[in-house]
Design brief:
- By secondary structure, the protein is an alpha+beta fold.
- The protein has one domain.
- 36% of the residues lie in helices and 31% in strands.
- It has one helix and two strands, in the order E-E-H.
- The chain has a two-stranded antiparallel ribbon.
- The termini are far apart.
């Protein structure tokens, strides 16, 4: 759960090694783009 004023960045760990940092903004933009790409055309 994320509280107001809390951390909005998350460490991405694979097999115990830090491989990146992702922000909530990054996640939101990724989801929006994915939905736009995958939505059926007119």
């Amino acid at each position: 759960m994320i509280q107001s004023g809390g951390n909005t960045r998350f460490m991405v760990v694979k097999e115990g090694q830090l491989v990146g940092v992702v922000s909530l903004k990054d996640l939101g933009e990724y989801i929006a783009l994915k939905l736009e790409i995958e939505s059926p055309g007119p």
